Amino acid sequence: MKPIIYEIRRTLTSKFVVIMIVAIVGLSALLAYESASTFSPSPVPTAPQLTYGYYENGSNIVMVSYSHNAYGNPVSKIKVSFGYNGTFYSALSGSNGFANSTIPTGKDGPPLSQSTIHIRFSGIHFLHLLGNFPSIQQRSHPG
């Protein structure tokens, strides 16, 4: 037998190397079993979600909303109502998930920093104060 092969065989069959190989394989098997047994998938909510924002266009507020599912795919035919000073402006989301509504504020209306927009979709009501919140919000239907 050649000396190099003898040394490799002697090293691989030593007690320390055999114990280390068994420990590494055993620990790997235990970790794989533990991670597979403790994984429990959580259900993805099926209720639509609404992300909305606004921008000013002259003396109007243009409300833009995007209805989507939990994966971000658009949801069509969601009725979204935007209430401003007691009047509601409705829009229905199209196949791309967007529903837009233009709210005329007029020159004599209150400043936007003191305005309140009520947002309803699928029967759920949200209150949005334009002056105190950022212009982009996301809400979930509690399904």
Explain what this protein looks like in three dimensions.
This protein has 143 residues and is of the alpha+beta class. It has 2 domains: 3-38; 49-140, Immunoglobulin-like. Helix content is 24%, strand content 37%. It is built from 2 helices and 8 strands; from the N terminus they run ααββββββββ. It has helices at 3-12, 15-38, and strands spanning 49-57, 60-68, 79-84, 87-92, 98-104, 116-121, 124-129, 137-140. Strands 5-2-1-8 form a 4-stranded antiparallel sheet, with no helix packed on it. A 4-stranded antiparallel sheet has the order 4-3-6-7, with no helix packed on it. A hairpin with a 2-residue loop joins β6 (116-121) and β7 (124-129). The radius of gyration is 31 Å and the shape is rod-shaped.
Quick overview of this protein structure:
The protein is an alpha+beta fold and 143 residues long. Helices cover 24% and strands 37% of the residues. It contains two helices and eight strands; from the N terminus they run ααββββββββ.
Portion in strands: 35-45%
Order of helices and strands: HHEEEEEEEE
Question: What about the largest sheet?
Answer: 4 strands, antiparallel
Helix % is: 10-25%
Oligomer: single chain
Strand count: 8
CATH architecture of the largest domain: Sandwich
Q: In total, how many domains does the architecture comprise?
A: 2
The CATH topology of the largest domain corresponds to: Immunoglobulin-like
Side by side, the strands of the main sheet go 5-2-1-8
Kindly report the average pLDDT value.
76
CATH class value of the largest domain: Mainly Beta
Radius of gyration: 31 Å
